[in-house]
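Bench notes, afternoon.
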Amino acid sequence: MSLQVNNNIQTQAAGLNDSFASLEKTGSVQFLFALLQLELSQTNKTAAMEKINSIRDSQTDSKTYTDAINALRTMSDYDVEKYGELPTDLETIQQEIKTATAALEDLEQYADGDKPYYDEKNKTWATKQESTDYWYKNEYIKAGEASAFDALRVGGEEDHNLSEIEAGIEAVSTRLEALKAYETLLTSTSVSGTSILSDSKISLSGNPTADDIKNWISNLESSQEELGTDIQQQMVFVQDYIGQYNSYMQGASSAISTANETLKSLARGQ
């Protein structure tokens, strides 16, 4: 919308520049009227652009609400008993995301690259340090005794068969998805810099229950709905300002055309 408005404004203004310059020194009534029309058009242009920028910010905030709602839905499917409790502070979450990502890449490399050899030789693999640190030494998984990681614990730190590796991929992937969802929630801020969780009266603490998540989703959806209503109202204002802008520009153009005709007639001695 803003690009179209800018293009219209530039095209209309360019068409008036030469004619307007020829009248500027005459002090004619038509010139003064055209000047007034242009000033009024500029006022409406400025107001329209302010509304457009506000709409753009609101649309960005609406997407942030959508991402937070989707993150909560991801967390609602997370089995804490099976995959372990999640850390709740952002720094720890981001550190584990980094470690879990390295572990997942390690596991997928074993499963994808060595499967034919495993099928033929019943091969087992020694794991890299990144993977071992994640599933065997991670304090959150260890404290929760998450059953999804039992297959990897059985293999110990030295070697694992293919079924253990595949179980590890599923476990790490599931936990990593929940960690990223939690990170999304903790970093969800509006264009103005406020937390959308706080704006929606949501306070994260520990691992949320299903009821917590249901209520939070409802709060975010209500806030997003209010935002959508405001966007619609702002768009009505934009259309009104653009209409007035076009009207004043047409008035200026008409005044300049009339004045030019008068000057031509005078020049011809008519």
